[in-house]
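Support request from a user on the community tier.

User writes: "When I paste my structure tokens into the form, the page sometimes reloads and wipes my input. The last time it worked, I copied everything first. Here is what I submitted, just in case something in the input itself triggers the reload:"
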């Protein structure tokens, strides 16, 4: 694995188009007399832009919903960031090799879900990969390839089995010294899901939350069957789309290295690191996952980037209502693999030239 997608340099691989008008339809919560208006706001959190779009009956309600949604992602950032010295995650990493530490519900939930996905992907997704990620961050800064000896040195500090949960005391113990947890492959997916929940608390159901390459959706916009999600053409860095899904009440995550890589010694290395070996990937892949929730979509996009087409089918068989597409660069160009139900996902059927797409910045 690793796709530290919370970083500023991660490419945005999903482009979003909102196909509804600014004031159409009516909200079941507010009665038929109140037309819905489209509202949108963006803020920077977790090193990327989070965008909130929804349909609500009035500006006063929209203002409160925006406030609560962005307060929630700020709260998660303060707990889950590995870049912040004062975050709860950083404090837990500093405790590695010592006794168990009580943790918040947010950190407990994301670590529990991460552990489950690690088991289901045979360690291709692993939030303990931090020591190897640090090596490759340094490589991008210095343009010096990590030595095999240095990678072997950090591997004993990596392994999801080194996270021990104490359910009775709601505490976590990291069994090896100098471990570094990195939630970059799941935190933004969790955050988009949490933000959606905050907006829904106000009776607003027609919602789209975008955080970098992660999208979590509520019900469809007024008079539409779903939100239009544009998937980037493999290898493109300019947001060119080649496929459009029409989705609601789902999460979508895309992982790839179109713009985030380094070339050293004549070889291209991805920003995605395989936690089982400590080495950055050299096979180019773009992975898109559609799942019922943000955490699952986010983590599986990272895991499948590591596993590739050969293992994808067996891994996805362990998850319900999850579909994926893997584009891989071969000697003969980009080749696509899709899960059994991918082609059954609703798609744009109209002439795309007649309806402009609003790209995600």
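"...and here is what came back when it finally went through:"
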């Amino acid at each position: 694995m690793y796709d530290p997608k919370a970083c500023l340099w991660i490419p945005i691989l999903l482009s979003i188009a909102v196909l509804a008008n600014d004031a159409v339809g009516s909200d079941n919560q507010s009665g038929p007399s109140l037309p819905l208006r489209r509202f949108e706001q963006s803020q920077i959190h977790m090193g990327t832009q989070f965008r909130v779009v929804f349909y609500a009956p009035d500006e006063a309600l929209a203002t409160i919903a925006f406030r609560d949604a962005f307060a929630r992602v700020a709260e998660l950032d303060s707990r889950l960031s590995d870049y912040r010295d004062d975050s709860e995650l950083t404090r837990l990493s500093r405790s590695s090799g010592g006794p168990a530490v009580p943790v918040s519900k947010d950190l407990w939930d994301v670590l529990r879900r991460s552990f489950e996905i690690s088991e289901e992907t045979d360690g291709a997704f692993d939030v303990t990969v931090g020591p190897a990620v640090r090596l490759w961050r340094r490589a991008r800064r210095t343009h010096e390839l990590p030595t095999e000896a240095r990678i072997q040195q950090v591997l004993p500090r990596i392994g999801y089995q080194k996270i021990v949960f104490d359910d009775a005391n709601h505490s976590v113990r990291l069994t090896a010294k100098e471990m570094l947890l990195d939630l970059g492959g799941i935190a933004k997916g969790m955050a988009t899901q949490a933000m959606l929940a905050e907006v829904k608390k106000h009776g607003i159901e027609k919602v789209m939350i975008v955080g970098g390459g992660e999208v979590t959706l509520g019900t469809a916009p007024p008079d539409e069957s779903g939100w239009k999600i544009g998937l980037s053409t493999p290898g493109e860095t300019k947001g060119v789309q080649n496929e459009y899904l029409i989705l609601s009440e789902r999460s979508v995550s895309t992982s790839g290295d179109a713009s985030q890589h380094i070339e050293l010694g004549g070889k291209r290395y991805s920003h995605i690191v395989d936690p089982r070996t400590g080495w950055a990937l050299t096979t180019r892949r773009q992975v898109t996952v559609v799942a019922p929730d943000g955490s699952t979509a986010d983590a599986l996009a990272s895991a499948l980037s590591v596993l590739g087409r050969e293992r994808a089918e067996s891994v996805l068989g362990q998850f319900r209502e999850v579909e994926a597409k893997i584009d891989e660069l071969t000697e003969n160009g980009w080749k696509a693999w899709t899960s059994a139900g991918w082609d059954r996902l609703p798609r744009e059927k109209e002439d795309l030239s007649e309806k402009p797409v609003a790209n995600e910045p």
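Agent notes: The reload is a front-end session timeout and is unrelated to the input. The first helix runs from residue 59 to 80. The longest strand covers residues 31-45. Escalated to web team.
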